[in-house]
Design brief:
By secondary structure, this protein is mostly helical. Helices cover 47% and strands 3% of the residues.
């Protein structure tokens, strides 16, 4: 994956710290698109603390580069598979289900990434 995320902030400030925050924003966008998930059980949030919530970093200046990343990943999924994800988290199971539904095929099992 290639991301061009220099942004107006780098043009304005241009310090290595600012550039690092922009890079961090790209990582945050990838995390938002692929990993972040709020789990609810019986109407109660099951992962209310950061220790229970997968979040790769902290936000700040990086937010300017974070915003377009989930949309870019959704567009890449569309380009590759012809389906548009319409919500986050775009994990493998969700994309797999979208593809199967688009093809009107039964869902074959998906391998667990943790195995």
């Amino acid at each position: 994956m290639r991301v061009d995320a220099d942004g107006q902030v780098v043009a304005c400030c241009g310090t290595p710290d600012t550039e690092g925050q922009i890079d961090g924003g790209v990582v945050m966008g990838i995390g938002q698109a692929l990993w972040e998930r709020c789990l609810c059980k019986d109407g109660v949030i099951a992962n209310p603390h950061y220790r229970d919530y997968r979040l790769p970093g902290a936000k700040g200046v990086a937010e300017t580069s974070l915003i377009p990343i989930p949309a870019a990943i959704a567009a890449a999924v569309y380009d590759a598979y012809g389906v548009w994800p319409d919500h986050l988290r775009m994990d493998a199971e969700y994309i797999h289900r979208l593809i199967a539904e688009a093809r009107r095929e039964p869902l074959p099992p998906i391998a667990d990434a943790a195995e």
